[in-house]
Amino acid sequence: MNRTLRMTHQREIILAELQRSKTHPTADELYERIKKKLPRVSLATVYRNLEILSEAGLIKKLEISGRQKRFDWDPGEHDHVYCVRCQRVDNIETDAPAPSVASAQEQGYRITGCRIEFFGLCPKCLQQQKNKPSKGERAMACPSCTTPTLSETQRQVLEALANTSEACGSKELAAATGLESKQVSCQLTALKNKGLVDSPIRCKYAITEQGKSILS
Fold this sequence. Notes:
single chain; alpha+beta; Arc Repressor Mutant, subunit A; Dna Ligase, domain 1; 3 domains; three-stranded mixed β-sheet; two-stranded antiparallel sheet; 7 strands
């Protein structure tokens, strides 16, 4: 992979913030930190540069179980473990050999890589579960798991949805919030993953009861 890439000031800031992070942040989470240093930067610019840096092999893009993409400043080979409650992602070192791919090769596949994914409860959520007897699935989760955190832009989109009487599209929400249409689409995907919005009609979105409760 070609690693020669013009290192702009924006990319330097993104790399520095990503390396400073002890977690594996999403583009939205990085944007909230980066805009403190680059107030005029847009979420779309952060997304685009993260993709460029990932394609250049300078960082690693993680797609954990179909959830929102996260980014790792260390592009070296290593596996990850994520918490099914709070979505925390950590590095994990394994000595296990790669699984056999003979059957895939027999079917004509050319294998180019392997990803091993572990999942379970992180120490914080596990301790919370031990300290508080469960009364069903929701009672076992720690507060940060049951109450999703919102970025400033996610809250803007959610509040705009709360003020509409029917499902609406990303362009309508962009006009209501003053955000870019692409930026709104990214936030809607994140909010849908958190269970705060749903899509009752194709390309239309509405706030869920959980979304209403987090705003109250």
